[in-house]
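Retro notes, item 3 of 5
We never archived the inputs for the zinc ion complex last cycle. Fixing that now. Sequence and ligand:
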Amino acid sequence: MMWKKRAKQAVLIAIGTLVVAIAALAWLWSDRPNLDDIAWPAPTIASAAIADSVTATWLGVTTLLFDDGETQILVDGFFSRPSLADVVLDRPVENDAATINYVLNEFRMRRLAAIIPVHSHFDHAMDVGAIANRTSASVLGSASTTEIARGAGVPEDQTITVAENQPYKFGRFTVTLLHSRHAPIGWRGSVPLAGTIDAPLTPPQPVSAWREGGSYTVVIEHPQGTTIVQASAGLAGAALSKVPADVVMLGVFGLETLGKSYAEQYWQGFVTATGADSVYPIHFDDYTRPFGDVIPGPKFLGDLTTTASWLDGFRKRWDNDAQLFMPEFGRPIALYAQPVPET
Ligand SMILES: [Zn+2]
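Structure as it came back at the time:
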């Protein structure tokens, strides 16, 4: 019968289209830049200098552990690493207790005074409550961040909902959160998973439950120097032009997809305007990989090789004295000890 034949054909075409689409997506996902093609050197410093200097240890994505030997501060807290399937299917995920315990022990976070997420998306703030519960650190962030801590059962006196532009002291560190913008990398220039978290957030939850809740530029001052952490590639606010800095941790996720002139404005706002002499790109690794795996994200989400060539060009044009460095996972960077590039 004719209609049966037609139906069979339609099903075959649908299956064929689906197979091609899945194959195309799999190819897009696996098409990655090679870290070896990027010429940024790792900072090399004598270990004696590390002992005396404020250090920052990059723990993947934009999680950074600052330490001056007395006080530790964690910017972001993301160790659980939901898988690609968890993210794509938006299925409920839990904090990964075993990984969190391992990281706190391995990186000796025994003097942690504060946990400061740059915004409340899962790839920045998912574990802040779980970390606070295992330490005595305060969680400092937006009202949405406070709801993440509450949902994890962090005591109220261990949470601080920040006032923008107000300095907070932790040991010899002074931390100020400036109003910032998230990179407009969502559909038609929107911010993905925008909005706020308005009630205590208790996992398991789908990753989409962690809403942005406002973004911050984090300024970390210390008698030795000043570091700015800009985790998301949103353009600088006006307040930043009055903040001189030595080091900038510059989030580059999605930057290439926003175009070269956007990237140039981004560079000028955070590097040229602050006069920083060391720049460490961050947020270039695939955040669906397990903790400790540093693999650049797929090219279609922002090609790191292109980003790197743009940043090199901006540096030569605007900030010839500045150096771009590739952070090494888990290895302390002596922030103010004049790192020398490997030759
Ligand atoms: Zn985000």
